[in-house]
């Protein structure tokens, strides 16, 4: 029997954890919101079904960090929320660098996990207190060292190609990832700048910040010519940084 066509489609969520009690707890938390449906549970990343809106993934499965699997899933367009009791700075940054949309600590509770699911499903950035603290500390340490804001290599690559007047679809093809993943790299860079007190709401602002920090060199941008030959090829940089 089909559902009401006027009723909004529910957000489908997968939960992967090697502790059944955690899975049951997360299911109970998510059941509090009628917009969410748990469509997959498992204790490994094997056979994750396609089409899940969000995947909540424990970083430590059966005694092993699954950061490579985070990167693989993110590369396949899966929105991943890493959910872990491991909150060391290096672990949180590694998860975000691997392509996780958000890091939620297991002690942050139901409200933060629910909010993360809803915002990540809508392709909006969300920063939990744990992630915010790690990013802020990382930028403070960078300032004390006299170094620039820290972006992952994938974030920098996405920004560089985007600044070169490429559409996000073209960037995705060049990097071998989905458009969604490219958008998350850009959004995560924006979040990092906002956390550092240097908001970059537009493409032009982002380019200015990246050049200030030495993340992008002007000569990498000026004079770029797309190899595309179609009539809808991206316009020159000088006309494309206003949005």
Find the count of extended strands (DSSP E, 2+ residues): 7
The 3D shape can be described as globular
The CATH superfamily of the largest domain turns out to be: Response regulator
Biggest sheet, strands in spatial order? 2-1-3-6-7
Unreliable stretches (pLDDT < 50, length at least 5) are: 223-243
Helix content: 40-55%
Chain-averaged pLDDT: 81
What is the highest CATH level, the class of the largest domain?
Alpha Beta
What is the name of the CATH topology of the largest domain? Rossmann fold
User: What does the oligomeric state look like here?
Assistant: single chain
Distance between the termini: 45 Å
Q: What does this molecule look like?
A:
- This protein is of the alpha/beta class and 243 residues long.
- It folds into two domains: 11-129, Rossmann fold (3-Layer(aba) Sandwich); 148-229, Arc Repressor Mutant, subunit A.
- Helix content is 45%, strand content 13%.
- The protein contains ten helices and seven strands.
- The protein has a five-stranded parallel beta sheet with strand order 2-1-3-6-7, with helices on both faces. A two-stranded antiparallel sheet has the order 4-5.
- Strand 1, helix 1 and strand 2 (36-42) form a beta-alpha-beta unit.
- Helix 6 (153-163) crosses helix 8 (179-195) and helix 7 packs across helix 8.
- The protein is globular, with a radius of gyration of 19 Å.
- The model is unreliable at 223-243 (pLDDT under 50).
Helices and strands in order:
Blueprint: E1 11-16, H1 20-30, E2 36-42, E3 54-58, E4 60-61, E5 64-65, H2 67-75, E6 80-84, H3 89-97, E7 102-105, H4 109-121, H5 129-145, H6 153-163, H7 168-175, H8 179-195, H9 203-212, H10 218-221
